[in-house]
Write a structure and sequence with these properties.
By secondary structure, the chain is of the alpha/beta class. It folds into two domains: about 130 residues, Aspartate Aminotransferase, domain 1 (Alpha-Beta Complex); about 250 residues, Aspartate Aminotransferase, domain 2 (3-Layer(aba) Sandwich), CATH 3.40.640.10. Strands 2-10-9-8-5-3-4 form a seven-stranded mixed β-sheet, sandwiched between helices. Strands 11-12-14 form a three-stranded antiparallel β-sheet. α2 packs across α9, α11 crosses α12 and α12 packs antiparallel against α13. The relative contact order is 0.16.
Length: about 400
């Protein structure tokens, strides 16, 4: 079939041409004497994306799941208690990973479609007078449900309880896309992956680590090898890696970081918000509801849309894929068959979101869901027109 396939899952995302071009090069010598001239500035600029001055960035050849494992094994000891809220598939998987490593996992169960429960967290921390909880784990943006949580509010809960626990954040689908402030929010470990806001192929876990977390690492007793902070840090300080790095991905990451900093992180977040608002306007025009239960939870990187009772969202997804070359996100576990997801993260603009909405409308109608043709597209168009930057057109003589 001709044309481009429409990729609107919440990751992997669309790759910009400069990123693809940066990776299209011969393999290089990762031990070359001039390699640090490339890597050391990259580490410094990644700190800008995380918005940290005092933290340290680690790059592991891995997915975000490896970043989760690096976070917990480098700072905790077997049997340590961690507090985590589960309100979607990815927060559930992080909790499960903690159990597999032998931690005492204290779960705050939350309805899928809501976000991190600040009051319940604060109450649990205040009740923990012996400070048995060693870390609070937060999924900043839960892609399964299209929900974003208030990480700064979790830091305030820790401060209100005067609790010393580490604050660990899954920022896989938030960092480099929506507002994230590592130092300001007192985040001790922030985990993300290359395949979402950084607009790269899957393959890098990018982990930001505070000085407090590095201090915890000195006494943590979990076994680790590949993900060891000490081994990685000792090599990184001179611009090298303890084992063969993914050099082509690092070259792409350099191009990605240049694009993000060139646009400006505030502008990146504003762009994602504006595009997401257009997608949500389209859903409202269809008469469908979001999985996210309130506007305060709405994600600016993925919109999870509920299908009416009696319909299966998998049918919408399969129809969009096979008839219209459009990839949408599946509903996962608890919301399987109930929602489909539009990813609007990374290298996206207005016309691309309109493309996704148009494909969704056709697929929805094909499976028998009664939406007015063009309604969602028109609603998003008007939002984008009303919020577009004003510009002076040249006068024609």
């Amino acid at each position: 079939m001709s044309g481009f396939h429409g990729l609107f899952i919440p990751g992997p995302t669309n790759m910009p041409f400069p990123v693809r071009q940066a990776m299209d090069l011969p393999l290089e010598d990762q031990r070359a004497p001039d390699f640090p001239a490339f890597t050391l500035p990259l580490f410094r600029d990644l700190k800008k994306v995380f918005r940290t001055e005092s933290g340290q960035i680690f790059l592991f050849p891995s997915s975000g799941t490896g970043g989760w494992e690096a976070a917990i094994t480098n700072t905790l000891s077997p049997g340590d208690k961690v507090l985590i809220a589960v309100f979607g598939q990815f927060s559930h998987l992080w909790a499960d990973l903690c159990r597999r490593h032998g931690f005492d996992v204290d779960v705050l169960d939350v309805a899928w479609g809501e976000g991190f429960p600040l009051d319940a967290c604060e109450a649990r921390l205040k009740a923990d007078r012996a400070h048995e909880i060693k870390a609070v784990l937060v999924c900043h943006n839960e892609t399964a449900t299209g929900v974003t949580s208030d990480v700064g509010g979790v830091r305030r809960a820790l401060e209100a309880a005067r609790h010393p626990a580490l604050l660990m954040v899954d920022g896989v689908s938030s960092i480099a896309s929506i507002d994230f402030r590592m130092d300001e929010w007192g985040v001790d470990i922030a985990v993300c992956g290359s395949q979402k806001g950084f607009m790269l192929p899957t393959g890098l876990a990018i982990v930001g680590v505070s000085q407090k977390a590095l201090d915890a690492h000195k006494t943590a007793k979990c076994p680790r090898g590949f993900f060891d902070f000490t081994m990685m840090g000792n090599a990184n300080k001179d611009g090298f890696f303890p084992y063969t790095p993914a050099t082509t991905l690092l070259r792409g990451l350099r191009a990605s970081v240049d694009m993000l900093l060139g646009e400006g992180l505030d502008n990146v977040a504003a762009r994602h918000h504006r595009l997401a608002e257009g997608a949500r306007a389209g859903v409202a025009a269809w008469g469908l509801s979001l999985c996210a239960k309130a506007p305060k939870w709405y994600s600016d990187t993925v919109t999870a849309i509920c299908v009416p009772k009696g319909f299966n969202s998998d049918d919408v997804i399969k129809t969009a894929y096979h008839r219209y070359q459009l990839s949408l996100g599946l509903g996962l576990t608890k919301v399987a068959g109930k929602v489909f997801r539009i990813g609007h993260i990374g290298h996206v603009n207005e016309i691309m979101i309109l493309q996704a909405l148009a494909g969704c409308e056709m697929a929805l109608r094909d499976v028998g869901i009664d939406v007015a043709p063009g309604s969602g597209v028109a609603a998003a168009q008007e939002h984008y027109r009303e919020t577009a930057p004003r510009m002076e057109l040249p006068k024609v003589a």
